[in-house]
Design goal:
With 86 residues, the chain is mainly α. The chain is built from three helices and no strands. It has one domain. The longest helix is centred in the middle third of the chain and has 47 residues. It is rod-shaped.
Length: 86
């Protein structure tokens, strides 16, 4: 029985249909590998950009804020302030 199965598989493997199926499977496999590689490269770019942005934000968060001294009377008088003063 095993000999018959091996003989059958051997004849099927040599047919044009089998060669076409293997060629199609190889094409699909190659496309999958290319897509995976592209995704891996692009994901690396995104991750490095996120790390860079995180470092920039960390530097900004640690930097002291510039204090602006407010001078009295430098604000433009509003109507409400003018009514209070009157």
């Amino acid at each position: 029985m095993i000999a018959n199965v091996n003989q059958f598989l051997g004849t099927v493997a040599e047919t044009e249909l089998a060669r076409t199926a293997r060629r199609s499977a190889r094409t699909i496999w190659d496309a999958h590998r290319a897509a995976f590689e592209t995704t891996r490269v692009e994901a690396g770019k995104v991750i490095s950009l996120a790390i860079h942005e995180g470092q920039r934000l960390a530097v900004r968060a640690k930097a002291p804020r510039a204090t602006v001294a407010k001078k009295a009377g430098t604000r433009k008088a509003t109507r409400r302030a003018a009514r209070r003063a009157a």
